[in-house]
Design brief:
The protein has 133 residues and is mainly alpha-helical. The chain is built from 5 helices and 3 strands, in the order H-H-E-H-E-H-H-E. The protein has one domain. The two termini are 26 Å apart. It holds the Pfam family ResIII.
Length: 133
């Protein structure tokens, strides 16, 4: 994985205001993730900025060709909608689950109804799955 050199502007010209821990976490993830080590855990307090960090990490991984899709999992529709907005703002692409989209955002409950579809998605390409906990 290539190193992140700087924050890239969001659509509209704004740069994501990353905190020091977020930038370090992204760097560590980019250095750690590989075919042999496909998992990475980021743990922080509520409201610390894990969602923004995940969105910027997803952007980096999409840009360097490490992943093909993003599948965000969250506990409620409100959290999922907030995540969709955050990811779409950072990525500049929709996450609505349509064929041309870069991925989708769903609740844990919705997984039960979409297991076949999501299994196919994960088998066809490399998928980043940031999950709310």
């Amino acid at each position: 994985m290539r190193r992140r050199s700087q924050n890239r502007p969001l659509k509209g010209g704004a740069t994501p205001p990353l905190r020091g821990w977020q930038a370090r976490c992204i760097e560590t993830a980019l250095q750690t993730l590989s075919e042999d080590r496909p998992h990475f855990l980021c743990q922080a307090t509520p409201g610390a900025g894990k969602m923004l960090m995940s969105a910027v990490l997803a952007e980096e991984l999409l840009l360097n060709g490490s992943i093909d899709q993003v599948l965000y999992l969250g506990p409620t529709t409100a959290v999922v909608q907030h995540a969709r907005t955050q990811f779409e703002q950072v990525l500049g692409r929709p996450l609505r689950g349509n064929l041309h989209d870069v991925g989708t955002c769903v609740t844990y409950h919705a997984l039960h109804h979409r297991l076949g579809e999501l299994k196919t998605l994960c088998q066809r390409g490399r998928v980043l799955i940031p999950a709310y906990s």
